[in-house]
Amino acid sequence: RSSGPGGQHVNKTETKVELRFNISDSVLLTSAQKRMISKNLGNKLIENNSTILLTAQETRSQAKNKALAIKKLHDLINEALVQDEPRIATRPTKASKEKRISTKKTSGEIKSMQALQGITNDMTLMLGGFGLCGIPENAIAHLVKMGVNNLTCISNNAGVDDFGLGLLLQNKQIKKMISSYVGENEEFERQMLSGELEVELIPQGTLAERCKAAQGGFPAFYTPAGYGTEVAEGKETREFNGKMYVLEKAFEADFAIVK
């Protein structure tokens, strides 16, 4: 059992995660992709060849096991989708085989490469998702490969040690993290306490509204959340109808990355 965004609140007595993915009900796959997956994964499907069942119980953290199960699902689907790629008719040499294997890219990797063109060092990125759900994991993995540094990342969460933004943290590619729910990312905690990582923790509703304000073209807004706490330090405050409010500014970012 778990609670919180993406299951980051952990019940240590039960860490096994079971993931079921119904291919036919997915809105993320085209009809052609669904047929291809059903054909290539036929012997691994259950429930009338429509469902993928995966389990993970490799760590004592339910959140990490959930991340592992999701990664297994993505790897399995990508493997099924690339199986039908055109093959070279001539007999390849051993060297060409090794080159093809090492350079083959999944459709998700190709889309990430195209979407992230233009991202360079010292930029500010907004990344979607809630907890471990809905995060742009393919794009984050490509950012790791790109090697861009000194990033400021705005996100609801900081991922876990080996998934999501945790991968960028491990590589020391993030200089500042603006977040609300950091969960159980031990590397995030270590860098924050050691002073390696600049951190701005803000209320979850305020984070959402700062995103919304940026999208709507509003430079700032007042909110009662955080008044009288460290959140309000250094910020303008104002009274409306007998209640105190804090002025929060809209986010400014170079790229917004969503799944």
Automatic annotation (TrEMBL):
The keyword Transferase applies. One of its GO terms (molecular function) is translation release factor activity. PROSITE patterns: RF_PROK_I. Pfam families: CoA_trans (PF01144), RF-1 (PF00472). Keywords: Transferase. Residues 1-17 form the Prokaryotic-type class I peptide chain release factors domain. It comes from the Eukaryota. Gene3D superfamilies: 3.30.160.20, Glutaconate Coenzyme A-transferase. The keyword Isomerase does not apply. SUPFAM superfamilies: NagB/RpiA/CoA transferase-like (SSF100950), Release factor (SSF75620). InterPro entries: 3-oxoacid_CoA-transf_A (IPR012792), CoA_trans_fam_I (IPR004165), NagB/RpiA_transferase-like (IPR037171), Pep_chain_release_fac_I (IPR000352), Pep_chain_release_fac_I_sf (IPR045853). Belongs to the prokaryotic/mitochondrial release factor family. PANTHER family: ACETATE COA-TRANSFERASE SUBUNIT ALPHA, KETOACID-COENZYME A TRANSFERASE. This is Prokaryotic-type class I peptide chain release factors domain-containing protein.
